[in-house]
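Kindly inspect both lines:
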Amino acid sequence: MGNALIIFALIAVLGVLFTGIFAMAKGGDFNKKHGNKLMRMRVILQLIAVILIFIVAASGD
């Protein structure tokens, strides 16, 4: 179960990262409106993923 949560968190990080990179590359209104929010969300999701990795590693799952 723990590994599935980690994989889900990592996929979420990649999704937000690529959406943010695409928005920055394209520019325009979408980037102005959502660019910073996407990058902040990426950092938060990365933190969650790292915490999950530590929890799973500590439990020996």
